[in-house]
Amino acid sequence: MVSFIELKLWKYVVDDIEVAMAYWLGTMGVGPWHYNAKVPIEDYTYEGKRYEVHNSVALANAGFIQVELIQTLRHRENRL
Q1: In order of start, what are the domains of the chain with their CATH numbers?
Q2: By the 8 A CB rule, do 14 and 69 touch?
């Protein structure tokens, strides 16, 4: 029989992901961070307009808690 542990996931949307990673590491000892600076979001539409958007995402574990930091970038309207 396989035994699973309960894992919690905490997600935070931040203004500056690099500052947030440094804060979590320096203040709370959470890290190392697994960081992807550009995760594309395809076919993003808001109020009928298409935008080119991507997220930066960082993940780290603290015991049974996984912390995810998300920063959305490039709020540029795409005139297609």
Answers
A1: 8-78 (3.10.180.10)
A2: yes
Beta strands in 17-78 (DSSP E): 34-46, 49-62, 65-78
Burial class of 67 by CB neighbour count within 10 A (0 to 12, 13 to 18, 19+): buried
Put simply, whether the predicted model's pTM sits higher than 0.85 gets the answer no
Q: Side chain identity at 53, as an amino acid letter?
A: V
Q: Which residues contact 2 (CB under 8 A, 6 or more apart)?
A: none
Using one digit for the tens of pLDDT, what is the confidence trace for 47-71?
Answer: 998 888 889 999 999 988 999 999 9
Q: Is 17 exposed, middle or buried (0-12, 13-18, 19+ CB in 10 A)?
A: buried
Cα gap 40→45, rounded to integer Å = 13
Mean pLDDT for the chain overall: 88
